[in-house]
Amino acid sequence: MSEIIDNVSKRQEQLKTLIQRLHRGEDRAAVEAEFKRDFAYVTGAEIAQMEYNLVQDGVSVEEIQSLCDVHASLFQGSLAELHKDVLTINPITIFEEENLEFSALVDKAIKFKQETNNHLNVVKPFLLDLIEKFRAVDAHYSKKENVFFPFLEKHGIETIPQVMWGVDNQIREKLKDSFITLNTSDDVNLIMDKFYQMVDMVKEMITKENMILFPLLRDTLTENDFKAIAQALENPEAGVYQSKEETQTVDEIESVNGDIRMSMGHLSTTEVNALLNTLPFDMTFVDANDKVKYVSQGKERIFDRPASVIGRPVHLCHPPQSVHIVMNIVEDLRSGKKDHEDFWINFRGKFVYIRYYAVRGDSGEYLGCLEVTQEISGIRSLEGEKRLAS
């Protein structure tokens, strides 16, 4: 996927380039595809403002009209809404297009099964190639779980996301199992069985998303919800639209000359944010009400924590297969039975140390739970001493 254009001036320059390419007679389909890719999550009002600015810069109205025709052909709202504060393309459409790609893979797999002679030297390379393409469902499901589901939860819909998340994880396991079997077994029947179990589940999930999830999203979410979703998908680190109730100003925090008062010393909000993001590990804080309140933003995160997780109940942030483990940890920390709990796992080639701490106030009251994760392969391999800088 191309780099997202997330700066207004860059967007405007890109728009100008597309207009010039159309004016030079470049293939309309190629320009339309690029416009759809880079301006999918822009509202009609933003496009109109950029067009106005380009006119002020000397671009002719006739030239701009050629791009307006492209915009109109892709716009999903009514013509009356074309230049209003409505998204050019609803984010759901992108997911539907991904499902079309997955459906094509499913059809290819089914056709191969019907026509193959089950020779090992034919089956293995073909299925290995397909599996590499099917790996894209993991990212598709992650975006769905981390971005769409929190907005359904805000509207009181929790069961469907939890059930679907559980099935997503089953598909991930089937995909992993199929890949391992392909690389370790010469039993063609076993290889085919494992692979097509995964294919059948992907096919079923495509149907569930298209027939249940996407209509539910369209019927339930507001235009502002979709704008927030678009923002989260386009730039996961940027945050999402927040209500006034979710926003706290510096003036509402006890301060010293504008700084936040710490237990020893004081720091500005800029310093606090930079300091926490510089620490060599990831932190996620769940408050006393079991809602995610803070996630550090270091350079190398181990687990995905999109902006949409803020304010989300912690029990909805984990798949159903593991949520009971997490909630048991939280209750042990809350009750005082434990002050911390440690785990270590192998994850995507990394050795990850995960620690959960009870966070308590000056009077011992439970304020929440802090999760700290760190990749410690390098630390485990240290030997001897290092007393001087290199």
Form type: globular
Kindly provide the radius of gyration, computed on alpha-carbon positions and rounded to a whole number of angstroms. 25 Å
- Name of the CATH first level of the largest domain: Mainly Alpha
CATH-defined superfamily of the largest domain: nmb1532 protein domain like
The number of domains: 3
Content of β-strand: 5-15%
CATH architecture of the largest domain: Up-down Bundle
Helix content: 40-55%
How many distinct beta strands? Answer: 8
Q: What is the overall pLDDT average?
A: 81
CATH topological fold name of the largest domain: Four Helix Bundle (Hemerythrin (Met), subunit A)
Supply the helix-strand structural class: alpha+beta
Order of helices and strands: HHHHHHHHHHEEEHEEHEEEH
Q: What is the topology, as strand order, of the major beta sheet?
A: 5-4-8-7-6
Distance between the termini: 39 Å
Low-confidence residue ranges? 1-6, 74-85, 238-253
Count of DSSP-assigned helices: 13
Largest sheet: 5 strands, antiparallel
What does this 3D model show about the protein?
- The strands form two sheets. A five-stranded antiparallel β-sheet has the order 5-4-8-7-6, covered by helices on one side. Strands 1-2-3 form a three-stranded antiparallel β-sheet.
- It is α+β, with helices and mostly antiparallel strands.
- The protein is built from 13 helices and eight strands.
- It has three domains: 74 residues; 140 residues, Four Helix Bundle (Hemerythrin (Met), subunit A); 125 residues, PAS domain (Beta-Lactamase, 2-Layer Sandwich), CATH 3.30.450.20.
- Helix 1 crosses helix 4.
- A hairpin with a 5-residue loop joins strand 7 and strand 8.
